[in-house]
Amino acid sequence: MTPQSANPPLLLRNARVYAPRPLGLRDLLMVEGRILAVDASIEITGLPGLHEMDAQGAVVSPGLVDTLTHITGGGGEGGYGSRMPAMPPEDAWLSGVTTVTGALGTDAVQRSHTELLAHARLLATAGVSAHIYAGNYHLPIRTLTGSVQTDLAWIPEVIGVGEVAIADHRGSHPSAAELARLASEVRVGAMLGGKQGVLSIHVGDHDAGLNVLFEAAENYPVRLSHFYPTHINRTRDLLQQGCRFAREGGTIDFTATTNAGLLAAGDVDSPLAVAEALAAGVPGDRITLSSDAYASLPEFDAEGRFLRVGMGRLDSLADAVQRGVRDVGLSFETLLRTVSLNPAETLGLPRKGRLEAGADADLVLWSEHHEVLGVISGGVVRRWPD
Fold first, then answer.
1. DSSP characters for 186-245?
2. Is residue 191 assigned to a domain?
3. Residue 161 falls inside a structural domain
4. Which of 23, 186, 200, 246 is surrounded by the most beta carbons within 10 Å?
């Protein structure tokens, strides 16, 4: 089906709705980019330009929300040839992702926040809801306006700082005091800008793990919930530490992108990590998955020398959902929450990650085998099966 370029009112009938809570067969009425109604049967007349579509009983969920992507491309650890490309909008429609959060990552020398902001706005013009983080792996934090607080207060797309690296040889090894100070900067800037504020923490493979975050929360007036650590499935030891972090009030993020080399090095596949975290007593609403799309996935030898590089995939979120249901035995609802409602709540996006009246009209159509078949964003059909 050819994507629609206009934005007429849209009535989707006979959808098996996961909101993410399963609602059964429902009709969804979308007007001007928002969901107007979700009901068992919607009868409406007199709405000019109304377009009707039949989901034929297929599963429909909220559009996926990705809390960590490298929309301008990551990489660079292996020189210029290891720089990753920028994210094209079309990848969102293939992957079911309708909301992304862009970060710089390792390289803030050859990549900039102006470039990051410009690409977020490019994605937005194509229908992808795009946000960005100030900062990158290193302290002092680089910003667009000169301070974390003014970035958060003045720039709509900036929703936090990240990903700041800990336990990683590529980071700047921040102290607990520095991280507590930064968490307070994010908190104040977010308050001024009417945002939730997120401090995304990249966790490397050093044995220190999350120790500095526990130290910050223990010794300064900040909470574990002020930090949002990612890559928690990097090793089994880190996963166990992350479960403690979440049980004590924080939210943890598992990276959905993986490969054979990472798994051999100790990665816990993200669907399995979700199952193990739940079994360890982690509340289900404190677990998210992110793709790390367009990041480089560098491999180093025992001496820290660069060996090779792969790339993060945006479709790893939907893939993790599919494999989690098929191979791990988790419910579709459980996994769906980790890529829709939970990340939307973590980022402070009240109209994302849910299908209800007033929410943004971002939807994914799934096959019976949990493959992405179609995408609607902002009430516009971006991809749909013929």
1. HHHHHHHHT---EEEEEE-SSTTTTHHHHHHHHHSS--GGG-EEE-TTSSHHHHHHHHHH
2. no
3. yes
4. 186
**pLDDT tens, residue by residue, 9-32:** 999 999 999 999 999 999 999 999
CATH of the domain at 168: 3.20.20.140
8 A C-beta contact, residue 71 and residue 100 = yes
> What's the number of domains the chain is made of?
2
Can you say which residues are annotated as belonging to the binding site? 70, 75-77, 106, 137, 170, 202, 231, 234, 292, 296
183 assigned to some structural domain? no
Quick one: CA torsion of 222, 223, 228, 229, rounded to 10 degrees?
Answer: 100
Length of the chain (residues) = 386
Clarify whether residues 297 and 319 are in a common domain: yes
What is the bridge-based pairing of β-strands 380-383 and 372-377?
antiparallel
Instruction: Say if residue 51 is in the same domain as residue 117.
Output: no
Tell me the backbone φ, ψ of residue 198, rounded to 5 degrees.
-130, 135
Asked if 227 and 332 sit in the same domain, the reply is yes
**How far lies 195's CA from each of 69, 140, 207, 220, in Å?**
20, 22, 34, 23
Verify that 49 and 155 share a domain, yes or no: no
Indicate whether 123 and 100 sit together in one domain.
yes
- 224 & 328 share domain: yes
> What is d(CA 305, CA 78) in angstroms, rounded to the nearest whole number?
9
For residue 135, give the nearest of 107, 164, 114, 109 by alpha carbon.
Answer: 164
Domain residue limits at 365? 10-62+354-383
Reported as a single tens digit per residue, the pLDDT across 201-255 is 999 999 999 999 999 999 999 999 999 999 999 999 999 999 999 999 999 999 9
Q: Residues with catalytic annotation?
A: 292
**197 domain-assigned:** no
Q: Distance (Å, rounded) from C-alpha 231 to C-alpha 218?
A: 23
Residue 255 Cα to chain centre, angstroms:
10
Enter the tokens of residue 125.
């013009």
pTM of the predicted model over 0.85: yes
Binding annotation for substrate: 75-77, 106, 137, 170, 234, 296
DSSP state of 80: G
